[in-house]
Structures are given as structure tokens and as C-alpha cells.
Design brief:
It contains 11 helices and 9 strands. It has helices spanning 21-45, 54-79, 92-106, 109-125, 132-156, 158-169, 180-199, 201-210, 237-265, 271-274, 277-294; strands at 2-4, 14-17, 82-84, 87-89, 176-178, 212-216, 219-225, 320-321, 333-336. It has a 4-stranded antiparallel sheet with strand order 6-7-9-8, with helices on one face. A 3-stranded antiparallel sheet has the order 1-2-5. Strands 3-4 form a two-stranded antiparallel ribbon. A hairpin with a 2-residue loop joins β6 (212-216) and β7. α4 packs across α11 (277-294) and α9 (237-265) packs antiparallel against α11 (277-294). The relative contact order is 0.15.
Length: 338
């Protein structure tokens, strides 16, 4: 497999090609099937009592599109050559549909990141006065609008059209788009995380060294000594930053290391693989931490309306609790369930 570059491509894309379409069709089926199983596993692991938000709606829509792509690949692979509603479908449409999906996925990262950030900022500041049902409808139509807008852009872009047309001319080639948005988004997230860790590394090390493991309410938990205070409002951004880092890395450290390896080795991953639900939940946790930190002076940890993460239980990392029957522990303490 070699890399191709499009001459008239203004968006600086890279293409990934292969010379054996039949083998690629089988490989595509296995990859998409594995991705769908990963989607089901990730969606099943998330906390069921989370508040509905834009990112959650988009993750569900992404799982649906992946399933739709798998169904199309399966039908075309089974019938090989058939006519439906006046259109003839062959095995080469498997590559064509996957190319279109790859381009669509590749251009979704920035819009999804921006809208999710706006959504959390509005929810945190409580500027939205919509009811829960109206908010869900707004999320639904926003997700549909994003998908349609990006798909229309992909199908109407001349450079993308030329690359899709080239695949029909050279049917033995099957190029896949590699998104530049994913690279830069991951790069800036890792830079921000690195700067945050360097800024508060001493506090982070102190918290990590103080962590202990115990059992509470029939669950294994992590805890660390927490200084007593009269309110549940975190006023110091530096103190909050160290706790956010401990909580975030406590859940996403393997994923962070994977992102660093991908960036250092400049691994080229097709966009239809890179846009996945674990990546979106990783971005989601990062956005929530950023919103928490910027709104430090407004952060009331007892407020149940705060943005809720499907995987990271941010509240338990900060709320001081007194747990009885813990041997030789400082009280009050804070429970971490990351």
C-alpha cells in the first residue's frame, strides 16, 4: 500500500491506495465490523444516568452511519452486481461509498468540537431556557444539519470530485482520505495537556503520591487527603488544574499515550477509522475539563446541572466527604472514581 497525493487538492489531503479491490472489500468489512463492535462496547460502558448533550447525540448518529455503511458493504458484496431504483451497483461502489464517508468524517472534527464547546459553555452558564424535550430536539436537528452540510460540501467540492472520478477511471485503485483536522486537533490537545501538566506538576505528583485504595459502598475507590473548607466552590485555578489533570489522566492515560505515539510517528489513519466514538468521548472529557477550568469561580460542585461526563466522574474527584471506618486516613477526604 502506498500513499497518493491529489494535484488539485486545496485542502491538503493525503490519500491511501491499494491495488487489490477484492481484498480491500473484505478488509473494509472486517474493519467496519470491528469499529461497530467497538461502538457498542463504548456506548455500553458509559454511565446510563448522564445528561443528554450534543456530543452524546452525535456519537449515536456516528454509530448509526457506521452501521449503515456496513449494511451497504454487505449487500453489495453479496449481490456483487445488481440494479436498484435505476442505479447499477457493483463491487467498486464499496470503495466509492467508503471514500465519501471518509471525506465526510474527515471534515467533521472541527465543527463537532466547536459546537460541543459552545453547548457546554451555554449549559454551564445556564443561558439556555429551553426545556429538556426542546433541547433534545435542538440537538437532533443540529446533528442532522451538520451531517447534511458536510456531505453537501464533500460532494460539491471540485477537488474531492476529481479524486472520486479518478477512482472510477483507475478501478484498481481505492484511495482513502486522511484527515488533517484530526492531526491538528490532537496536536493542540496534547500541547495544552503538556503545558497544564508542566505548570502544575508538583501538585499533581503530590496528589498521586497521596492516593490510596479502599472499599466504599461495595466498590473499589481511590481517595486522597483533601483539606477542609467551608464551601463547595473551587476558587483557585491552580488547585483545580491539578485535580482536573489527575482525574483526566486517571481515565484517559492510555489514550493520551496512543495519541502521542501517533503524532510522533506521523501514522496515517484513514478518516473512516479515525472518527470513532472513543475518540469523541476523549474530546468530550477534554472539553469538560476546559470549561470547568475557565469557569473556576462559578464552579459549584454540588450542582447536579453541571456538564456530566460519560466516563469521568469529575464531582467525586473534588467533593470532600467524610467516610467512617477508614483506617488511619485524614478527614475529610475526596473520592476519585475516574
Amino acid at each position: 500500500m502506498t500513499a497518493l497525493s491529489s494535484e488539485n487538492c486545496s485542502f491538503q489531503s493525503q490519500l491511501h491506495q491499494t491495488n487489490q479491490p477484492l481484498d480491500v472489500n473484505c478488509l473494509l468489512f472486517l474493519i467496519i465490523l470491528g469499529k461497530i463492535l467497538l461502538n457498542i462496547f463504548t456506548l455500553g460502558m458509559r454511565r446510563k444516568n448522564i445528561c443528554q448533550n450534543f456530543m452524546e447525540c452525535f456519537c449515536i448518529s456516528l454509530a448509526f452511519v457506521d452501521l449503515l455503511l456496513l449494511v451497504n458493504i454487505s449487500i453489495i458484496s453479496y449481490f456483487r452486481d445488481f440494479v436498484l431504483l435505476g442505479f447499477r451497483f457493483t463491487k467498486y461502489h464499496i470503495c466509492l461509498f467508503t471514500q465519501i464517508i471518509s471525506f465526510t468524517y474527515g471534515f467533521l472534527h472541527y465543527p463537532v468540537f466547536l459546537i460541543a464547546c459552545i453547548d457546554y459553555c451555554l449549559n454551564f452558564s445556564k443561558t439556555t431556557m429551553l426545556s429538556f424535550k426542546c433541547q433534545k430536539l435542538l440537538y437532533f436537528f443540529t446533528v442532522i444539519l451538520i451531517w447534511i452540510s458536510v456531505l453537501v460540501y464533500v460532494l460539491g467540492d471540485p477537488a474531492i470530485y476529481q479524486s472520486l472520478k479518478a477512482q472510477n477511471v483507475y478501478s484498481y485503485q481505492c484511495p482513502f482520505y486522511i484527515s488533517i483536522q484530526t492531526y491538528w486537533l490532537s496536536f493542540f490537545m496534547m500541547v495544552i495537556l503538556f503545558v497544564a501538566f508542566v505548570t502544575s506538576w508538583s501538585e499533581v505528583i503530590t496528589l498521586v503520591q497521596a492516593i490510596r485504595i479502599t472499599s466504599y459502598m461495595n466498590e473499589t475507590i481511590l481517595y486522597f487527603p483533601f483539606s477542609s473548607h467551608s464551601s463547595y466552590t473551587v476558587s483557585s485555578k491552580k488547585i483545580l488544574l491539578s485535580r482536573l489533570i489527575v482525574c483526566f489522566l486517571g481515565t484517559w492515560l492510555p489514550f493520551v499515550l496512543l495519541q502521542v505515539i501517533v503524532l510522533l510517528l506521523k501514522v496515517q489513519i484513514p478518516a473512516y477509522i479515525e472518527m470513532n466514538i472513543p475518540w469523541l468521548y476523549f474530546v468530550n472529557s477534554f472539553l469538560i475539563a476546559i470549561v470547568y477550568w475557565f469557569n473556576c469561580h462559578k464552579l459549584n460542585l454540588r450542582d447536579i446541572a453541571l456538564p456530566v461526563d460519560p466516563f469521568v466522574n469529575w464531582k467525586y474527584c473534588f467533593i470532600p466527604l467524610t467516610i467512617h471506618n477508614l483506617e488511619q486516613t485524614e478527614k475529610p477526604i475526596s473520592i476519585i472514581i475516574c
